[in-house]
Amino acid sequence: MDRNMKGLLCLVCCILMSFVYLKKEPVKVYLIGDSTVADYSLEPDYKTRRYPLTGWGQVFQQFLRRDNLVHLKGIIHADSAVVDDRAKGGRSTRTFFEEGRWAEVYKLLKKNDVVMIQFGHNDASAEKPERYVNITGYKEYLRLFINQSRSKRAWPVLITPVTRNYPWNGGKLGSAHGDYPQAMEDVAKELRVPLINLTKLSADYFTMKGQDYVTSRYFMNLPAGAYEAYPGGQKDNTHFQTEGATEVARLVFQGLKKLSGNK
């Protein structure tokens, strides 16, 4: 092989290697929160033990397709994104931290990763002291998640707790979360963090769909014999079937679009 040919091959190799080097890795979109966010499909025997129970984080990846990411440039600074759902049932801000779940996320965080934070369901459960966190503590743990995310140059996003299927009054769905959504809004303003008011978005959307529809199609209210995992049926107005979780995930995606300056 003559010298010119060798030089040409070296040039081609350098160009190819530069493309590999410049190719951006997908950012991770970490979801931290409670049972309404969790991915139950990760559990053994999901189909026989849990289905159709679905957290909105479980179905969120479909909204982060490459063609959708162009609408999220204000939040997701990459051409591709992968959801890493760390949410766990029964966790409040405090227990998520105390169990080391946040430490696992923090250790993995890289520049431009996104941390989406939805807590409140269990923080507000004063009747369960093992979970309960008062408003002051709730704010402090939110600040911790935000500040530590930023220390890794990641992007925190706050999400107020998705509504339960009560209280209904005159055909309109309200909030069962007390002062916790407002407390999260206060922290968002204080630290200038993007916030999605999922409490209001979900209540308004479910109101539009109607109580009967969301009760039977969105929440885990199941007739006896319909699903292997729930032979006696189920009445649950907090957790979602797949259709409900998908619509909540859509609301979250739309919230991200709005934060990015898109409608």
Explained architecture:
There is one protein chain. The chain has helices at residues 3-22, 46-49, 66-69, 93-98, 101-108, 135-151, 180-191, 198-209, 211-217, 242-259; strands spanning 27-33, 81-85, 114-118, 155-159, 168-169, 172-173, 195-196. 41% of the residues lie in helices and 11% in strands. Helix 6 (135-151) runs parallel beside helix 7. The relative contact order is 0.15. The chain has one domain: SGNH hydrolase (Rossmann fold). The strands form two sheets. A five-stranded parallel sheet has the order 2-1-3-4-7, sandwiched between helices. Strands 5-6 form a two-stranded antiparallel sheet. The termini are far apart. It has ten helices and seven strands.
Number of strands: 7
Distance between the termini: 59 Å
**What's the SSE pattern?**
HEHHEHHEHEEEHEHHH
Oligomer: single chain
**Name of the level-1 CATH class:** Alpha Beta
Q: In order across it, which strands form the biggest sheet?
A: 2-1-3-4-7
By CATH, the superfamily comes out as SGNH hydrolase
- Could you please say which CATH topology applies here? Rossmann fold
**How many helices does DSSP assign?**
10
Q: Are there runs of 5+ residues with pLDDT below 50, and where?
A: 10-22
**Average pLDDT taken over every residue:** 92
Proportion of strand residues: 5-15%
- Given helix and strand content, the structural type is alpha/beta
Q: Can you tell me the CATH architecture? A: 3-Layer(aba) Sandwich
Query: Rg to the nearest angstrom?
Result: 21 Å
The largest sheet, given as strand count, sense and whether it forms a barrel, is: 5 strands, parallel
Indicate the percent of residues in helices.
Answer: 40-55%
Tally of separate domains: 1
Shape verdict: globular
